[in-house]
From TrEMBL:
InterPro entries: Thiolase, Thiolase-like, Thiolase_C_2
Highest rank taxon of the organism: Bacteria
Source organism of this protein record: Streptomyces nojiriensis
Name by which UniProt lists this protein: Thiolase C-terminal domain-containing protein
UniProt xrefs under SUPFAM superfamilies: Thiolase-like
Thiolase C-terminal domain location: 231-379
Length: 380
């Protein structure tokens, strides 16, 4: 990974989603120090009828390798794995991953409304009539974990509190004022047990990541961040086909990624985890092996997720506080790269002696734990 960037994020009322794609892409290319002409691979999802063809055309690109994989929030970790494989096979030299969304601005301008579901066709037709929304599916899973393992509302709330504390040092975060466990628990109920602050924010924003072959490293503006290993997994779409509500597909994607990288959870200095809801962070940490199954509540409640904690998680504030314009998985990769480069400013994670972190993990989740992509990144 040789270039990363965010577009304008948070409250962005003017630009279109295409403009946010372009802004992020230009910034990532500038960050890399490479010329646009090196890009022969392109990956995008979530915008246009023929994504990524329409977005590539808007950016003035004519790629010879494309990826339009769309598996929700984990799309970008899956695409990063595909891009790395394509580059290793000699099918592409430099692949641009880019995303942009005006989810918040569209609601404010009444260009769209909130959805109750992803649709009413296929397997979902058996759930939609009962009002089974995406949020309620995560809420059911959280309740099951609470029933099975004694996980408490206070423990779930502590995830949101720590995410907000991490956001406090991120000038790009949409919300930075501190919150308490009591404030999380006392908020408006969205889907039991989730109150408003258990749920991700709705923002605008975009980002981009440029991956390039090793031959280009001497020409890049900064030291690259290397993909050490990646794994992907899909689980279910119909809730009745989900064997265990307390296990996410990260249990599989994480295992594969660690095996391919030759690493263990103990080697990871920081983790960027998809957090549309507080429960996602907790159960993903379990499934990735940072703690045993059922021990996530005890693990998260002791401040371990803070920037200066035992395992810094979502160091930019995550989807709970920093930004969440839709499929947030690409933002995880951007933040991981910035941390490994030492570019996170006041939010920089350091190891003993002030050393920079060496290994970061990004784990994206799609749908209602339907898919997972986990990528391990390293310096040098």
């Amino acid at each position: 990974m040789v270039g990363v960037a965010l577009s304008d994020c948070g409250r962005v009322d003017g630009p279109t989603p295409y403009a946010l794609h372009a802004q992020a892409a230009r910034r990532a290319l500038a960050d890399s120090g490479l010329q646009r002409s090196v890009i022969d691979g392109f990956a995008s999802a979530g915008l246009g009828t023929l994504a990524p063809v329409e977005v590539a055309e808007y950016l003035g690109l004519r790629p010879t390798w494309v990826d339009s994989t769309s598996v929700g929030g984990s799309t970008w970790e899956v695409m990063a794995a595909h891009a790395a494989d394509a580059i290793a096979a000699g099918h592409a030299n430099a692949v641009l991953l880019v995303y942009g969304s005006t989810a918040r601005a569209d609601i404010k301008a009444r260009r769209r409304t909130s959805n109750l579901s992803f649709g009413a066709r296929g397997p979902l037709q058996f759930e939609v009539p009962y009002g089974h929304t995406l949020i309620s599916k995560y809420a059911m899973a959280a309740r099951r974990h609470m029933h099975e393992y004694g996980t408490t509302l206070e423990q779930l709330a502590s995830v949101a509190v720590q995410a907000r504390a991490n956001a406090a040092t991120n000038p790009d975060a949409m919300f930075r004022d501190p919150i308490t466990v009591e404030e999380v628990l006392g908020g408006d109920m969205i889907a039991d047990p989730f109150t408003k602050l258990h749920c991700c924010i709705r923002s605008d924003g975009g980002c981009a990541v440029l991956l390039a072959a090793e031959d280009y490293v001497p020409d890049t503006a900064k030291a690259p961040v290397w993909i050490l290993g990646a794994g992907t997994s899909v689980s279910h779409t119909t809730m009745s086909e989900w064997e265990d509500f307390t296990v996410s597909p990260a249990a599989v994607s994480g295992r594969i990624a660690f095996e391919r990288a030759g690493l263990t959870p103990a080697d990871v200095d920081l983790a960027e985890i998809y957090d549309a809801f507080t429960y996602m962070t907790l159960v993903t940490l379990e499934d990735l092996g940072f703690c045993a199954k059922g021990e996530g509540g005890a693990f998260v409640e002791k401040g371990r997720l803070l920037r200066d904690g035992e395992l810094p998680v979502n160091t930019d504030g995550g989807g709970l506080s920093a930004c969440h314009p839709g499929m947030r998985g690409l933002f995880l990769l951007v933040e991981a790269v910035r941390q490994l480069r030492g570019e996170a400013g006041a939010g920089q994670v350091t190891k003993p002696g002030g050393r920079l972190p060496e290994v970061a993990l990004a784990s994206g989740t799609g749908g209602w734990f339907c898919s997972s992509g986990t990528v391990l990144l390293g310096r040098g």
